[in-house]
Amino acid sequence: MGIDLKAGGKNLNKARKVKTTDMYLQLLMKLYAYLDRRCPSKFNQTVKKRLNFSKRNKRPISAFKIEQLLEKNDVDPKDTIVCVVSTVTNDGRFTDLGKLRICALRFTAAARRRIEAAGGECLTFDQLATISPDGKGCILMRGNENSETKRHWGRPGAAGDHAKPYVRAKGRKFERARGRRNSRAYKVKS
Fold first, then answer.
1. pLDDT value at position 190?
2. In whole angstroms, what is the distance from residue 91 CA to residue 111 CA?
3. Distance CA 130, CA 178 (A)
């Protein structure tokens, strides 16, 4: 048996093709590809990979979530730079924010104001490359993977599938009859 090359067999290059038109992001990808070659570290390799993620996979994270994760894992924020390959947002529900050094692709205006008012520092990835080219003293974080859209993935109504259906309303008459209750013909076993 041979390899079906037309069907994609023996394709050793699995890297995602760069699709962004953002010049800054393209330059960052070149920079971290260079750093990955010249000072190989798992950090540079991961940042290079995450820079090439699609927008859906570059999930935002709030400054307060970052602080909570640092406290939970007993990490001293004075000695570490938190790196987020996405946007850092503000969370208006919390009032006090500690002094943090955060490196991210973007900061919302409110998040930047909040971090700098607390005595923290907002860095870009090119600044980080000069401070710590091999990622020593840096921690990588990313936002929550569970989004509302993911709940709808699958086949709603199929046996064993718990996908959330797109419904016009949540009333008695909307997706509550056949297949949902025994009293209406049958109930699908899940």
1. 66
2. 8
3. 63
